[in-house]
Specification:
globular; D-Maltodextrin-Binding Protein, domain 2; 254 residues; single chain; 9 strands; 5-stranded mixed β-sheet; 4-stranded antiparallel β-sheet
């Protein structure tokens, strides 16, 4: 994926001999999922909802998760949360769209109609009650300033408060025959190399993304978890269970 939160995962692949075993390309999360589905990519950092929908396997050691506020997945609403009827969602998102639907249904009793749009907050709120902004565009927003005018939710914070569990947003996933222990070790080593060279990442990546270095450092060290364990996957299973139940309910209602 092309967001800041994936940079540590691939830093070793980009800057050491580890990269000799792979060819990397960068896309939005939703496009990564499409590329794997159509067979033009062997694996990708995929939204977990797409891993489930496509019946893919995934590498267990690394991914993108949070254990509290995530900062880069924001729901901004111009109406009270329980009154949200329309949601403009960042067109790069799939896991976060479903997470928004789960949280709004479970915590606020709202089930909005959703439409995909480019990540422009003003444009999104011009056509919908609420906007979901993810990734680098969300990092360029100031949640505290927005709260003077809107309801603003950090969806990582909402999920952990609701479930008591971490939230996994994306994992390295692909067809089962591609998911080997050797690859798992390769990507874990790449991630650890990236986090060991965090200052290099911040220096090279934050300026071109218009993200302050102080925020980038806090984000990659406090808000995002890259090495995953059983508790993270417990949260992932709970999320997928609630998502499936919501989909079944919508199907029955329709």
């Amino acid at each position: 994926m092309s967001y800041l939160n994936t940079v540590p995962l691939v830093w070793g692949l980009e800057h050491t001999a580890l990269g000799e075993r792979v060819a990397l390309e960068y896309e939005l999360p939703s496009v990564c999922a499409d590329r794997v589905r159509e067979g033009s990519a062997d694996l990708g950092i995929l939204p977990v909802i797409e891993v489930e929908r496509q019946g893919l396997d995934w590498l267990r050691s690394t991914g993108i998760a949070c254990e509290g506020p995530v900062r880069s997945i924001l729901l901004v609403s111009k109406v009270p949360l329980q009154r949200i009827r329309t949601l403009a969602a960042d067109s790069g998102s799939r896991t976060s769209v479903m997470l928004t639907r789960v949280i709004l249904a479970e915590r606020y009793g709202a089930e909005p109609a959703t439409a995909a749009m480019p990540a422009s907050l003003d444009s999104m709120l011009g056509v919908a009650d609420a906007a979901l902004v993810i990734g680098d565009p969300a990092l360029r927003l100031n949640p505290e300033a927005l709260r003077a005018r809107y309801e603003v939710l950090d969806l990582g914070e909402q999920w952990t408060a609701m479930s008591g569990l971490p939230m996994v947003f994306a994992v390295w996933a692909g067809r089962r025959e591609r998911m080997t222990p050797e690859l798992d070790g390769l990507f874990l080593e790449s991630c650890r190399y990236g986090m060991a060279h965090l200052e290099d990442i911040l220096e090279q990546e934050c300026l071109k993304r218009d993200i302050p270095k102080t925020l980038g450092r806090e984000y990659l060290t406090r808000h995002i978890a890259f090495e995953l364990g059983e508790r993270h996957y417990e949260g992932m299973r709970q999320y997928l269970k609630l998502a499936a139940a919501l989909e079944r309910q919508r199907t029955v209602t329709a």
